[in-house]
Amino acid sequence: MTTNKIMKKKIILIVLLVVLIPTITQLFTLMASNKTEKQPYTVVKKEKDFEIRFYPSATLATVMTTASTYKDVASPGFRKLAGYIFGGNQDGMSIAMTAPVHMDMSETGSTMSFVMPEGMTPENLPKPNDPSVHISTTKPEYVAAIRFGGYASDQDIQKYAARLEQALQEKGIKHSGHFRFLGYNAPYQFLCRRNEVIVTVEYEVIGNK
User: Fold this and answer.
1) Bridge partners of residue 199, in order along the sequence
2) Which of 154, 181, 188, 193 is deepest in the core (most CB within 10 A)?
3) pTM of this prediction?
4) Helices marked H in 172-207 — which ranges?
């Protein structure tokens, strides 16, 4: 076999490895994300561009910040919350990661929250070592949700919040509070990313229409 043929085969092998290894990694990442516990909800109404969901009460670990943008809230908030669930608590206990991550952003202050696994409550969760991490329980609520893919940005969140608001107005559905962002995937997952914008709605009004 000539030197040129050997070199060609090596180049082909290198190209295949460069292409296949990231693809295989992403497939394993996708499989792992599919096994991640998701916050439960019930879809009660489906529309063309959005759906109405009922979320039961959930326990959250939350950090607050004066930042008002996705970029400025995401990284520091994630580090603090990850520190808590990866053993940064009075028991040194590891807590399973769930999805989605909640972000409520506004000009007057923002929050980022991890949903605690099913069965965990403020009473049986360990106290965070970081005093900026707060444990609380949400009230049951109905929300409208719109979904989009890719890597989220402030522009995407604003665009889909506006789209959801317009769709709700067209349907005569009343909403209240901030439009919130839900992120479902780790930063290193490139395929099949899931993002959502949600807002609290008055479902009783909808049911009477």
Assistant:
1) 144
2) 181
3) 0.81
4) 203-207
